[in-house]
Amino acid sequence: MLSLQFIRKNQDMVLDALKSKKVILNLETILEIDTERRDLIRNVDDLKAKRNKVSQLISIKKKNNENSDEEIKNMRSVSENIKRLDDKLKKKLKKLNSLLLYIPNIFHNSVPSGLSEENNILVREWGKKPDQNKDYKDHVHLCDKLNLTDFSRASKMSGSAFPLYTNLGAKLERSLINFMLDYHIKQHGYSELMPPFLTNREATTTTGQLPKLEDDMYYIESDDLFCIPTAEVPVTNMYANEILRQDDLPLKHVAYSACFRREAGSYGKDTRGLLRVHQFNKVEMVNFVVPSQSYEFLEKLTKDAEDILQELNLHYRVISLCKGDISFAAAKCYDIEVWSPGEQKYLEVSSCSNFESFQARRGNIKYRCNKDQKVHFVHTLNGSGLATPRLMVALLETYQNDDGSISIPKVLQPYMGIDVIKK
What we know:
Layout: H1 4-9, H2 11-20, H3 27-63, H4 69-100, E1 121-126, H5 139-146, H6 151-158, H7 167-188, E2 191-193, E3 198-200, H8 201-206, E4 218-220, E5 225-227, H9 232-236, E6 242-245, E7 251-260, E8 279-289, H10 294-311, E9 316-320, E10 332-340, E11 345-354, H11 358-363, E12 365-368, E13 375-377, E14 379-387, H12 388-398, E15 406-407, H13 413-416, E16 420-421
Parallel strand pairs: 2-7, 6-12
Antiparallel strand pairs: 1-9, 3-5, 4-5, 7-8, 8-14, 9-10, 10-11, 11-14, 12-13, 15-16
């Protein structure tokens, strides 16, 4: 959430974010309501000052045994006006806060201009693409032949686009998750959490999914709870309505969770196999840092995610997202895309974002500065480290052998207990 003071002073930046992130919202209406709100506050303050003076006059007259009926009558009238204006002010504030939730975060000045993914900028690549002359089978073929997944039986349980991992496919999925958690904890210094997979409306609003993205959420109406789209939601809310000590920052948490997304806008997109599913597993990294260090930590966070792909020896690239491709809540975002030789394209496996104080304002997450003892909002960052479905796609396709088997990357062999998956 952006402060009203910031919005008033930086209307061009806010309008740019609204346009680029394709949010239809009348900023003038918000500013008009804000002006009316401030006028009401001034009127209420004036009436309260008047009431205080009248109260003092009544007190003096009573001490002097003078009649104060007229003053008491006036004070009642003033009090009634104050109550009336206070009620009006509450309604204005409720409407204003509701509209403010639809204003997206503004962009960091390093975010590329442009309104579509064609305007994204390649930052770097790592590793070599697998041999382009080789005939790679896609992951659907490999999974079927090696009995690693069973989507037809999964559809009997939950419908289409829900995965069922079977046999060594299930073990490989579990091994990936454990490897990534262990690596981030041991090599990157993260503290592990196991958060709830359901969050309330307030928590889901803090991270920016609500109210704008509610159509993409799985919702449990009887409990007013949402199935999380990422562990970012519960983990970020861990410190909601708290004042942290600066000495405790940065806080770096890593968490595994199942993730649930309706993919409401996925019609016409490639939904074969694991490419686009409603439920998937992900290891999420979340950072809480002082504002002056947040962009330094964005680079570190992105590198932490890249390290996983390097350990797995998978070719990937890092993309800086342009204004039109960045998420509602992010100020800057890098996407990490791994190469899929069977699909012959890059697949996103991580988004690493700096939200600056946007989420912290919504969740009231602050810290007390050592220098001046003043309270400020923290900056929050998160990144997938990594999401497993497309990672699994790239891994199976990259490590396939001519005889139809799949070699296991060295770092996963201790978790799998084997070095190859055979039919």
